[in-house]
Amino acid sequence: MSVPRARGGPRGWLPQTFRVRFTLVFAALFLIVGAALLGITYSLVAGLPVKVPKPTPAQQKLALECKQANTGAGKVPAAGPTPTATPTPLPAATSSPVPIRECGQAFSAVGAEIAAHQQRDQTLAHLLEYSLIALGAMTVVSGGLGRPSASRARRASDRHLGERLALTGPKDELKELADTFDEMLERLDAAFALQRRFVADASHELRTPLTVMRTAIEVTMAKPARTPEQLEAMAAKVARSAAQAEALIEALLTLAASEQAPASPELVDLATAAEDAVDSAAARAGQLGLRIDTDLAAAPACGNRLLVERMVGNLVDNAVRHNIRGGWISIRTGTGDHQARFEIANSGPVIPEELVPALFEPFRRVETRTSVQDGTGLGLAIVRSIGTAHGATVEAHSLPAGGLGILVTLPLADGAGRPG
């Protein structure tokens, strides 16, 4: 029969919860520091000199002779002057009388020193007693103060990531540790929020292409005599819906990745990215009869090459999609004010200025924008997310004659591919 092993091994007697351990450690540290401070204070007070004149050797000798003399006579002389100056006889061992006045002065000097030392000893005893009581009480209080901090850490980890330690006080190691923990919680909270939004957006937007595919398949398969043409039409519709779903998933993944700061930034020329984007959109622009004017000066920026190129490509693609037949697109790149600039404008329907910010929200479209709506509704949302992750500024405004103008500015990079 095997004996179950005690929980926790050789340290099973230790508290098993973080809150209790943190409270005990907090109280123990306070007790150690308080005890050290108390010892130093007690040593300094005990070393203070007694503020009483020390009796001279002659006074000490005279006090001893007076004590012996009065002991032999069976009485103790009073300290201070007496009405008579009759000398007190000494015992047989001495032959000279000792005046009572001098005896009183000697006793006063010796007695003052003894009383001062007794008072100091009593004061030290009271100081030690009261200090120990205060140290014990404050140790209990410190443990009680450490418990809420541990509870906040437990709430932050167990309940929801919105909790923060928010430790106040001087900028010491403990506060730096708490701030680092809060920053970690903030990053985790942002990551989980991003994951939740990705799942919600994907589940919402994928419903449409999946419904189209299922409906096309069910309608075609429900026909008793299916012709090859009907099957081909159904297959084409399913293929288009699958492509739309694939593009949506890719856009959602790009949106999720674009909200993180680039791990390994590199030199990216906005002019080159714009030229590549124009070449990719040339076929579609030609079908709509769009005129594209470009003025591409060097605009070196620092960031993730794929994401920056995706940002520029989305802006060009957006200008082509939401345009009018026979319209125009203007693209400019360059530098200024220590920034790399990318500016794009296009013709199109008139957009109310108050509706422009809504264009950068996921899956938000303005009804007045007319074109073939085969996009994912995430183009400008991805642009904003990539810009935010790269420290860029994205400004958009509607044009009086219709269309949209967008200006993107990124920190200018030096020759080594670092922000200038």
Reconstruct the topology from this structure.
Blueprint: H1 18-46, H2 57-73, H3 100-158, H4 173-205, H5 207-222, H6 228-258, E1 266-269, H7 270-288, E2 291-296, E3 300-303, H8 305-321, E4 328-336, E5 339-346, H9 379-389, E6 393-398, E7 404-411
Parallel strand pairs: 2-4
Antiparallel strand pairs: 1-3, 4-5, 5-7, 6-7
Verbal overview:
By secondary structure, the chain is of the alpha+beta class. It has 9 helices and 7 strands; from the N terminus they run H-H-H-H-H-H-E-H-E-E-H-E-E-H-E-E. The strands form 2 sheets. Strands 2-4-5-7-6 form a 5-stranded mixed sheet, covered by helices on one side. It has a two-stranded antiparallel sheet with strand order 1-3. The longest helix is centred in the N-terminal third of the chain and has 59 residues, at 100-158. The two termini are 73 Å apart. Residues 1-10, 73-96 and 369-373 have low confidence and may be disordered.
Over all CA atoms, what is the radius of gyration?
A: 45 Å
Strand content: 5-15%
Biggest sheet architecture: 5 strands, mixed
Question: Cα distance, first to last residue?
Answer: 73 Å
Q: Order of strands across the biggest sheet?
A: 2-4-5-7-6
Total E-strand runs: 7
Mean pLDDT: 77
Report the helical percentage: 55-70%
Shape: elongated
Assembly status: single chain
What is the string of helix and strand elements? HHHHHHEHEEHEEHEE
Summed up, the helix count is 9
Q: Which structural class matches the secondary elements?
A: alpha+beta
Quick overview of this protein structure:
The protein has 420 residues and is of the alpha+beta class. The protein has helices at residues 18-46, 57-73, 100-158, 173-205, 207-222, 228-258, 270-288, 305-321, 379-389, and strands spanning 266-269, 291-296, 300-303, 328-336, 339-346, 393-398, 404-411. It is built from nine helices and seven strands, in the order ααααααβαββαββαββ.
